[in-house]
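for the writeup, i need someone to sanity check this before i put it in the appendix. the sequnce is what the collaborator sent (i think, or maybe the updated version? ugh). structure was predicted straight from it, no edits. if anything looks off just tell me and ill rerun, i have time this weekend
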Amino acid sequence: MMINAIKKIFSKKKPAEESFDFIQETSDNPNFVTEPAKIQRLLKAIESDSGLCMIELEGSEQTYNSRIIDIQENKKIIILDELMPDSGNQLLQQCKQLKLSTYLNNIHLSIALSNLKAEHAQGMGYYKAPFPRRIYYPQRRKSPRIHLNTHKLTFQGTSNRTQFSVGGTVIDISRHGIGIIIDNTIARIQRGDQLSHCILILPDHSKIHFDLIVRFAKPYHNNRTKLIIGGYYSEIKSSKEQKQLEQFFALTERSEIRKQKDT
């Protein structure tokens, strides 16, 4: 396997420090994560997600894709796959710095990486970069995600890309999105897909109609037929349904807070 082959032959060169950052926020912005242990956890979470990341290069208006294929915790090194399309690789080897953006837990984050070094293993290319000193990650304290342990909500929708119906069970919810376990044998949902004509059935049997933009999709507990997807509402069909969803979330959030106080 390509990733395993690359992991076996990483060099031991000491990582350099980050010197390039074209994220515009100031360093004291509370939306930045700066604690090394938290940075490492975020990087590991991105690697585990295995999703494509958007790459921006200074001086280029084109966007590229890549993925984090390994995190070397002891060496504080990130291993990044080659860029797609391939034209980005020549530019990256010249500037040796990039901005990586992706979604984690439905939250947009971005990372400036510098001092990238191109490597090859068994004919396959990749890049090594030192851990960043900070990650822009605006954690959603105003809209937390609540795991649904008590209520079992059902979901259905239609993939715009494949036109297949999608059904599943909601496992967590926030004011802006949901996480769902679905059967992936037919739907083949991918990150970036839009699901239309979605219906979420609340415990009181009221129905919320909306469209959903998929921000992550990955196997559910190594199950080949089950997939966990997360996304955000792109359009709730009426203000009444918006209010119903807000009320359900508020009740669920209060219930969760009470449980935490009792434990």
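The chain has five helices and 17 strands. Residues 255 and 261 are 10 Å apart (CA to CA).
thx in advance!!
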